[in-house]
Amino acid sequence: MNTKGQVMLRGIDHLVLCVNDLKKARSVYEALGFTMTPIAQHPFGTGNTLVQMDGCFLEVLAVTQPGDITEADGAHFSFAAFNRDFLKSREGMSMLVLDSTDEVADRSEFLDKGLHVYAPFEFQRLAKQPDGSEHTVGFSLTFISDPSLADLGFFTCKQWRPDLFWKPDYQQHANGALSIDEVFVITPEPSQGAAFLAAFADGVVEDSGTGVLKVKTARGSLGLYTPHAFEARFPGA
Question: For residue 36, which of 7, 23, 27, 140 sits 20 to 30 Å off, Cα-Cα?
């Protein structure tokens, strides 16, 4: 609930997938049947290429200009520094992002719930359109964190110009991909992160009794799995 008692169930906006080599990763995803957006540069040292789907996307991201990275402090979260540090240990999903229509309301709600909220952050970048032209898109991000899931970053994302961001030509994939159905988080103690994810999504925790806790969102679900439960669902993965 927000401060006015209205339901604000959020949906999965995108996943940040960290890689060391952006051009190589783009080629790998294309070989898997995804249509990739042109590589774009952030003003703070990272670059990305996207898999756009129906209202959500995968953000394949790398550090491209390390000298432009601003370090975090107690009040300010650093998107670029977080992902740079993540890549020191591995590649993969570094951040879970939910959608937003009002970053001020997000911040107020998260503070009311007692979550660790960082200073407001916004930025703009150029986005190449399917016709080759470039237009400016912008985003307002509300970062939060929780020690129960310290290895992952979390924020909501409000788009300033969705008409310039979402493009049908980028959403047609040879492999038939349409959306993000579920996010899998593997942890020895799913209960430790469940309350935080529920507060983040403004959802409720569902317990299957099989080592899996889920939080449904307006788009897709967030699953916390024990290693055994994940192995049972995806043998050999």
Answer: 140
